[in-house]
Every structure is written in C-alpha cells, then in structure tokens.
Automatic annotation (TrEMBL):
GO terms for biological process: coenzyme A biosynthetic process. This is Uncharacterized protein. Signal peptide: none annotated. PROSITE patterns: DPCK. GO terms for molecular function: ATP binding; dephospho-CoA kinase activity. Pfam families: CoaE (PF01121). Coiled coil: none annotated.
C-alpha cells in the first residue's frame, strides 16, 4: 500500500507520516528530500531551469547551478513563476519517485509519501491520498498567530507564508482527496493527533 499525505506548510505532514512509518511498518519518503537530491544531481533538470531565463525566471547562480536562495524566493512569492519552476522539477521528481516506489512495491514494502503539493506531481501508484487540514486557518486572529509561528520556524516573513499558502491551495484544493484529517497544530496535542491517525489507518487497512 502507498499512502500519500499532502497539505499546507506547517500542517503536520511530517509528524503524521513519521507516526505511520514508525507504528505501522511503512517506509517513509519525503518529497522535499528527494527533490534536493534530484536537483543537485540531474543535469537535464538544471538545463531546463536554465532555459527558464528566457521567461525572466532565474534560479541559477553564476556557475549555472541551482541557487537555493533564488529558488526559495520564486517558490514563496510568485504563483506564475512557482508553476513554471515546479513543472520542471516535478517532471524529474516524478520519474525518481516512481522508480523508488516500483522497487519498494516489488519488495512488498508499504510506503507513506509526504509532500505539500503531492497530487500535482501525478504519481499514479498512490492508493490513498490524505489531506491535512487546519480548521482554523480562515480565522484572522488564529491564522496570524499560527502563521507567525510557521514564519519563525521557516525563517520567512508573514507575507511569504501567506503567499505560499495561497499558492499551495491553488494546487491542492481541486485535487483528489480520499480522506481529510483535521489538525490544529497550535492546540491539538500529540495524543489526540495520533488517535486521529489510528482511526484513519483502521479505515484503510483491511
């Protein structure tokens, strides 16, 4: 079985995915970590990013290697540029992840995969897609408090956090969602969250 977990920045994806991996004998795959490897090792990907300069999108340094500061600025500030850069990265990320999942599947290994915009990558072998939702995200006072916490953790401004949440919502909210798990990261304790995950696992494990 392959479980895919996605949701906004700071929604608890890693916490839930690691809990499933540790307590239900699943292998854990973090798309951010896989993407870092792919971006650093794939010359074709770097060339495709180089071609984006024609569109005024520059995420490379003077040696035509990925500049992570420029990349972060694009990801957190512009929906249009984010989409073009993401399409390049996701093409190669999808290929890499599919290869890993194929190997694990052939070995009868269960896998939990997490990524903020996981469905947009188009990994067809995922059996169940779980969306982590913060039920208080639209509350102005709560939202600001939560977003300030995330901004501090990620070393970003509140404006950048608001923008990336908007971008992620544009990717995620029209995608296939099999299950929704509500997680209030500021007030829900670990035991309550774990119990919700256990209930979810009861639904999908036959």
């Amino acid at each position: 079985m392959i479980i895919g977990i996605f949701g906004n920045i700071g929604s608890g994806k890693s916490t839930v995915a690691k809990y499933i991996a540790n307590n239900y004998n699943f292998s854990y795959l973090n798309l951010d970590e896989v993407a870092k490897v792919v971006m650093s090792n794939n010359i074709d990907l770097q060339y495709d990013l180089f071609k984006l300069k024609q569109d005024g999108i520059d995420v490379l340094d003077n040696n035509n290697e990925i500049d992570h500061e420029k990349m972060t600025e694009v990801i957190f500030t512009s929906q249009k540029k984010n989409k073009k850069v993401s399409q390049v990265i996701w093409k190669y990320l999808k290929k890499e992840v599919n290869q890993v999942l194929k190997i694990l599947s052939e070995a009868n290994v269960n896998v939990v995969v997490e990524g903020a915009c996981l469905p947009s990558i188009g990994i067809k072998s995922i059996d169940v897609q779980l969306y982590l939702a913060n039920p208080e995200i639209d509350s102005f006072l709560y939202s600001n408090k939560w977003k300030r916490k995330i901004a501090k953790e990620k070393n970003k401004t509140l404006k950048e956090i608001n923008k990336v949440i908007s971008i992620q919502n544009n990717y995620n909210l029209h995608q296939r969602i099999d299950y929704v798990l509500e997680n209030d990261p500021l007030t829900m304790n670990v035991e309550v969250l774990n119990n919700k995950v256990n209930e979810f696992m009861k639904l999908i494990i036959k």
